[in-house]
Design brief:
- The protein has six helices and no strands.
- It has 146 residues and is an all-alpha fold.
- α1 runs antiparallel to α2, α2 packs antiparallel against α3 and α2 packs across α4.
- The longest helix has 40 residues.
- It starts with a helix and ends with a helix.
Amino acid sequence: MTYLNLMEELIELRQHIEAHDYDKALELVADLEEMSKDDKLNKIYTDGIVLLVHLIKQQAEKRSTRSWEFSIYNAVEGIQRVNRRRKAGGTYANQSELADLLVDGFEIAIRKAALEAFEGQYSDQELRAMVDPEDIQTQALELIQR
């Protein structure tokens, strides 16, 4: 959501409140909450792909680098920060939703990892045969939930 769109939504919310149209105001608040959650989930999805790429490379190449370790750390920290509800407590995405985001992002991650692992000498299908997707997704979820 852009700043301009947010301002338009807030103006509309104010108008509904001033008109005592609380049902419309509450609908708009629900829409704003949903857009905010979608934005958070999109950021988690993006960081999740970065996390998966490096876990795929680690498992496929059976090694790690300091750079990969830092990327993993950074992605996990980013996911945890975005997912944390500061004022209300709790999280935006529960364990099931996080797992779904990792499953959804795995295809993109394997394609990206194929470009990077082994200096790009294997296709995404060949790289997929070298790793255990479920194990990688479980590992990612465990890192996020620490």
